[in-house]
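Long-time lurker. I teach an intro course on protein structure, and each term I like to show students one example going from raw sequence to a predicted 3D structure in token notation. This year I'd like something fresh instead of my usual example. Would anyone be willing to generate the tokens for the chain below so I can use it in lecture? Attribution to the forum is fine with me.
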Amino acid sequence: MSTEKLLIFFLFVSYVSCVSELPEESCETLPSEIHITKEEFDELGRLQRTCNGEVAVNKCEGSCRSQVQPSVITPTGFLKECYCCRESYLRERVITLTHCYDPDGVRLTGQGDNSMDVKLREPSECKCYKCGDFSR
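-- Reply from a regular --
Happy to contribute to a lecture. Here you go:
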């Protein structure tokens, strides 16, 4: 057997043994809590009020299989496949912030000023995607 064929065979066997030892994917949609602060300004750019609150949201977390394998086709000599855990679908929610304050830090209690609705998008499903692939 020629040296080149032996090397390719060795690389293939090494690659197959590495692939069988790859960890399982564990990309999940998990509950989380974040603190949101939103400021509201008038048409002249002056601060009118600041509202904040703790909000329960989903997040993507986990690991995905990525690999580097020898390649005679690529210029670097290796074929890299990287996968990342991220959202497969986003849903829009309206969150009501109920702790609102005027520019002096006084809590607002008047009807209409004591809360603020904020739209946010959060993951409703997460899964592994090829890194850098934004064409979903």
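Some talking points for your students: Residues 3-20 have pLDDT under 50 and may be disordered. The first strand starts at residue 28 and ends at 41.
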